[in-house]
Write a structure and sequence with these properties.
Blueprint lengths: L7 H11 L4 H8 L3 H9 L19 H9 L27 H4 L2 H11 L5 H8 L3 H8 L14 H4 L4 H34 L1
Length: about 200
């Protein structure tokens, strides 16, 4: 990342108009020549350029300008403008062709039969259909239930093995948590009955 401000000419116009900084300080900060800064001050250079406030944009602080105004040998220092970029992979929705879309209810049926501990919402998220569709397939009230054939969604390429394993682990954690909560509720009931 370079240490020059955004829109250096417009920033120089603002600094000339609104500060008591020397031409040399402004020139070094904006990476321009001292003669260009003098031309801006005389109105010969950058006639049509609107001034750009570096304080509002977060490139400079008022304190930095005041300190440099008092000491003409001190250079202006641009504020750190590094932007943190997330390195996490974001799941991107992929286009699913019509032929594979018809396989979604079949895949939901396969998941219902083979991984019964998954919640309807988890199956819906994995396969990419609505929760109501999953519920109706589970209750055998889906409009096309008689024509459904359970198909492995991983083999069809609807999602990866890792996605399935993650969902199963999440379901197992949920079941353990619910079991602990039931035991805790049972113990509190027993304690309250004994008292």
């Amino acid at each position: 990342m370079s240490n020059i401000p955004l829109m250096p000419m417009a920033t120089a116009v603002w600094l000339v108009e609104n500060t008591t900084l020397t031409f040399k300080q402004i020139a070094k900060f904006c990476n321009l020549h001292e003669v260009e800064i003098q031309g801006i001050a005389d109105g010969e250079v950058a006639k049509g350029i609107m001034a750009y406030n570096p304080i509002i944009s977060g490139q400079l602080t008022r304190e930095e300008i005041e300190i440099s105004s008092k000491d003409e040998n001190r250079e202006l220092k641009i504020k750190n403008t590094d932007i943190k970029i997330s390195t996490e992979d974001k799941k991107v929705k992929q286009y699913i062709p019509l032929s594979k879309r018809q396989d979604k209810p079949d895949s939901a049926l396969w998941l219902i039969k083979h991984h019964s501990l998954l919640k309807d919402s988890q199956i819906a998220k994995l396969v990419g259909i609505t929760k109501n569709s999953v519920t109706s397939i589970k209750k055998k009230s889906y409009w096309n239930y008689n024509n459904l054939n359970p198909k492995d969604p991983i083999a069809l390429g609807l999602f990866s093995q890792k996605d399935l394993v993650d969902s199963i682990e999440k379901a197992e954690r949920r079941i353990k948590r619910e079991k602990k909560e039931k035991e805790k509720a049972k113990q509190t009931r027993e304690v309250s009955n004994n008292e």
